[in-house]
Give the backbone structure.
Amino acid sequence: MFNHKNGGLLSRYLIAFCVITTALCLAEGILGSWLLPGSQLSYSAYFVPPGFGLLTALTGIVVESRRVLSVWETVFRLVMQWLLILGLVFGVNLLVGYRFTPLMAGIVAAEVTVIFLFVYFVMWLNERRIANAFNRELAALQFRQDN
Amino acid sequence: MKVSIRNIDALSEEQVVIECVSVTPEIEEIRAFAQAKGQGLSGVTDGGEMERIPLDNVCYFEAVDEKCFACTEKKVYEIRQRLYEIEKAYEAYYFVRCSKSVVLNLMKLGSISPALGGRYTAHMKNGEKLIISRKYAPAVIGRVMNQKG
């Protein structure tokens, strides 16, 4: 049986959280060993990707709406969400006393953008998979009805 | 399955009798199909003429400014019922709510494709495109996916 909750709110947020956390781990590993190769981190550093993953996944609330949004309204809200995530990343770093150089700030902004787009790409792939399965079942249902 | 047809004189006496051991999903489908064939509703055209609309000709129902319209492939009719009444009354005939203002006929749906932000685009067989909102997408998808026979 197909679960009615599939493709729903909870699964969207869970996908976002998992993809962001994984992508952050990879990005921190790659960028950290490139830009700060001598840095030593404590075990508490393990909490950073899931922490940011949770916070940034929750920014998805920006695109929630009770009414059906037009394409441009959706795009506008997505841009708002992206700006909110940027603000969150730089804001938290400022709060803990970390100062970015302009180069680092640019790299972090690019990293956030790539991860943001990647999350939506993964969600689109998931929705396309659901749509393909739906279309197959719909064709079968209509065939049974017609015959 | 054995099928028998008996000719009768009165149109009002026409009926389909299903004799079965148990009411399986296939039997439910046959019942829904038979009921839909006889179903129809009245609507008013642009020209103000009252017409009978066979239910299986309706692609979707749409509510606009407190009015409800039945859209077929060629014509649009204004109807008296409210959208929530339509949704409830024709649920068994493969009509399903896809957004706050639209109830679509799954039998007139060609396919769906993902749209931005968890929504889907419904490509109707007549070429029209409707939006399946994120709120109603799980119900629309579940309605078809749970019909596996």
Observations:
- Chain A has a mean pLDDT of 87.
- Residues 102-146 of chain A form the longest helix (45 residues).
